Amino acid sequence: MNTMTVNVTDIEAIERATIAAVSPDLTEELDGWLLPFAGGTVKRARSAVPLHRSAVDHATLDRIEDRYDSRQVVPALRLADAPCFDGLRAELERRHYIGDSPTCVQIGSVQRMRQVVAPGGALADVDRTPDDAWSALFLGEGFDPVDGAHRVRMLSRAKGTLYASVREGGRTLAAGAMAFGHGWASVHGMRTDQAQRGRGLAGRVLAGLAQAASARGLERVFLQVDAHNHPALSLYRRAGFETHWKYSYWQRQQWP
Predict the structure, then answer these.
(1) From edge to edge, which strands make up the β-sheet containing 220-226?
(2) pTM of the predicted protein model
């Protein structure tokens, strides 16, 4: 059961904060939608997202497609699994879109997130800029280096973002980032060296970021996690996060 109420104003704020945190090259607003444009692999930075939960007519979808087509970008949409979008999903299927990558939007409190590490336990270091070791973790063994490079680029250029690192022996073993906007703190880019998993390092990253958010007077925090990433879901559950909705990415298929 979700214990934190989220209203329509919160949904719009979370969607706006999400786009700002991934820092696309350009964002347009059209008929109650945000249309980010960016190259690379970060889907949130290049998928149109509605700010309101209401039925979408075909003319709006036509306009969204036109904007992406005009920039020679394959149209893509990020849609919550809400009944109001049932008709839109059916129309997308008719237009040869495929939905994939189910993702959970989870919400928690900064106070509870801080408690994932026991009092007196070591926290991650938190810096205003990412250093080379922070960036190198995204390119390390077991991660897609192309995707990692795109994520580093976007997270590094977002305004006001903080960067958490757990360091040992001159290396960063776990990392994450926190953005601030529209009344929310948000967690992004969580990574742990594959050889170091199971040591509680990601929890130290969360706790360090929570302390930074608390210092800024923020209490509400959200994150987005792959619905099939069970270790991450378990960690976030221990940190007090709850899923409030899920979404999928819908991308138009290109035919030869």
Answers:
(1) 76-80, 242-252, 97-109, 220-226, 184-192, 171-181, 162-168, 125-127
(2) 0.95
